[in-house]
What we know:
The chain is of the alpha+beta class. The chain has one domain (1-26, 57-130, 140-165). It is built from five helices and five strands. It has helices at 2-24, 58-88, 96-126, 128-131, 141-162, and strands at 29-30, 34-36, 40-43, 47-50, 138-139. A five-stranded antiparallel β-sheet has the order 4-3-2-1-5. Strand 3 and strand 4 (47-50) form a beta hairpin. It starts with a helix and ends in a 5-residue tail after the last helix.
Amino acid sequence: MLVLLAFIIAFHITSAALLFIATIDNAWWVGDEFFADVWRICTNNTNCTVINDSFQEYSTLQAVQATMILSTILCCIAFFIFVLQLFRLKQGERFVLTSIIQLMACLCVMIAASIYTDRREDIHEKNMQFYSMTKEGSYGYSYILAWVAFACTFVSGMMYLILRKRK
């Protein structure tokens, strides 16, 4: 049982780390001379422009930002609730509250990655003065980590739903 508990905690911390990296790091769309994410666009690895309300489709990027931040916060809250429930639940009860919060984190990261997947071309086309070099790019590791974090938070949420407290 102790090994299972250690695995679950390690898996949850890994999910949270993936969410932090995907949210913070600047690699959602990358190319040879540029990298861009939901916070800023950098060309020549030195010239960075912060994404602000002067961008067209800024509300779309704000939705991605907000849902990624919310997913990270929810994942951390779920971990703390799991630790509390570990000491408060009676034997045989399930970690339902932890599961619900973790699945909400899963939903948020899925929404963020889906919005970015769907709207990326429109954002780049409507802001060509900033994204002029980005036509030859591809999805970066932060974007991929967001989808991996989606899978991890989903699996973690389901584990908490199935898991029962034992001695």
